[in-house]
Amino acid sequence: DVHVTMEADIPTFSPGSGGAAAVQIELLGEDGARCDGALLLCGYPDREAHAFLPLSPAACAGDPHALADRLRALCVPAVAPGAPVPDCLLRALCRAGIAVRLYLPEGSPQRAPLARYPHVRCDAHPLPDVPRTREDAVWQLCGAVASPRALDGTMTPDERLREAAGMPLDPADAHVSRVLDWLCAVSARLRAEAARQRRFSGALCAADAVQNPDVADALRTAFAPLHLSALPLQGAWWTRTRFSARIEAFLPADEHRPLEADAVLEDEDGAALAHLHAPCRGGGYVGILEAALPDHPCALTLRCRLSCGGATVKQTQLPVYVGERGPLEAAFL
Q1: Using CA atoms, how far apart are residues 99 and 173, in angstroms rounded to an integer?
Q2: What whole-number distance in Å separates Cα of residue 191 and Cα of residue 289?
Q3: Predicted local confidence at residue 191, as pLDDT
Q4: What CA–CA distance (Å, rounded) separates 38 from 299?
Q5: Which of 64, 98, 155, 279 is the most buried (most CB within 10 A)?
Q6: Sheet of 242-250, strand order
Q7: pLDDT value for 145
Q8: In a 10 Å sphere around its CB, with 0-12 CB exposed, 13-18 middle and 19+ buried, how is residue 228 labelled?
Q9: Average pLDDT of the residues of the chain
Q10: Is the Cβ–Cβ distance between 122 and 104 less than 8 Å?
């Protein structure tokens, strides 16, 4: 046995904080795997890895610390690299508090060397489907957010787009292309909201979609430490149906103000179709926002606001698309 006693006047470690004391302890287990004490003791908070951001091989090949910094700024809980990951990147992600999901079958010789990384989760089965095209993401928006429709290959991208919009569209058209880029960001935002409320498992978006500034902003918004999360049952809606969204507040540990939550569904003129108000001291479940949807295609806005003493602390918004020919008809009008 080895006993070591140390005294140091340093703050408790948290991912991203400056200043740290490094302790390097190397042990060899029966399988020969090296146990790295600097990683085991670095303070990794064991964040849930059920929802992840796919990473392309090109993204993993650059500066590991720069990549870890970019991912930490997005507040994403986990990543899933599409290729073998170098040790330097695994270390950088560990110290950034970001989990890593890898597909490695049982018995793979690559599993043993990864045992020393507390943030790596090895999956014996392939990871859930990733939307590979913009049309995939848009088509999946038309179903339940927490349980995306399966991409089984029975429809072409053009067929998926036509079903979602209710009309034939040319993805090469400049206007249609801009709308598709925006709807990819809406898809990422809704999946992130579902993951935040522990109702979604899988890829948040396609690999490299985060290069789209709107996608990056969507993830940063949904995973922010202080956030009033709105999770609609569906990503897009038919006319004359009933809208429903679950509202939940997430507060950082040092937030003790008497906050109040407001969720409002507004029409295109700014009139409220539904309004939910509740105190949210300590965070947690706020309530369900429900409304009867209009009988014509339109783009509504779901606004979420945290306030204290009447002053706005944090405010976000989500588009709510309502269609007659297709659920996303209004987005392309």
Answers
A1: 39
A2: 18
A3: 96
A4: 51
A5: 98
A6: 227-232, 242-250, 284-292
A7: 94
A8: buried
A9: 87
A10: yes
